[in-house]
Amino acid sequence: MSAPDRIDELRRLIAEADHAYYQLDAPLVPDAEYDRWMRELQALEAAHPECVTPDSPTQRVAGAPAPAFAEVRHAVPMLSLANAFSDGEVADFVRRVVEATGETAPAFSVEPKIDGLAISLRYEQGRLVQGATRGDGATGEDVVANLRTIRVIPLVLRRTPGLPLPEVLEVRGEVYMPKAAFERFNAEALARGEKPLANPRNGAAGSLRQLDPRITAKRPLAFFAYGVGEVRGLELPPTHSALLHLLGRYGLPLSPEIDVALGLEGLLAYYRRIGAARDALPYDIDGVVYKLDRRDLQERMGFVARAPRWAIAHKFPAQEELTVLEGIDLQVGRTGAITPVARLRPVRVGGVTVTNATLHNADQIARLDARVGDTVVVRRAGDVIPEVLRVLHERRPLAGDGTPLSPPFVMPAACPECGSAIERAEGEAVARCTGGLYCPAQRKQALIHFASRRAMDIEGLGERLVEDLVDFGYVQTVADLYRLGLDDLIAMKRRADARDGVTPETVKQGRIATRWAENLLGGIDQSRRTTLERLLFALGIRDVGEATAKQLARWFGSLDALMAASLEELQAVPDVGPVVSQRLHGFFAEPHNREVIAALRAAGVHWPEGPPQRAAEGPLAGRTVVLTGALAALTRDEAGAHLEALGARVAGSVSKKTHLVVAGEAAGAKLDKARELGIEIWDEAALLDFLRVHGRWPPA
Ligand code: 9MJ
Question: 339 alpha carbon to ligand 1 midpoint, in Å?
Answer without folding.
Answer: 41
